[in-house]
Specification:
Elements lengths: L34 H6 L5 H14 L9 H7 L3
Length: 78
Amino acid sequence: MTDEVWRRAGIESPCVKICMIHPEAGLCAGCLRTRDEIAMWSRYSDAERAEIMEALPERRARLVRRRGGRQGRLHRKD
């Protein structure tokens, strides 16, 4: 299956196919959208999609980063 099926005129989905909802933030770890935004994406107008796309970069900070396991310990500055 190719991605051409999902292409459309207008603002495309920010989906990066890493679909996992962060339990505390309620955001997808891949695209940073909420469940409701993901579910309603195809029904939103271009203006609504643009508004969501503009807000995505600020949402990254809401996700709590993992400490990194072994790699994190090796690079940690105590």
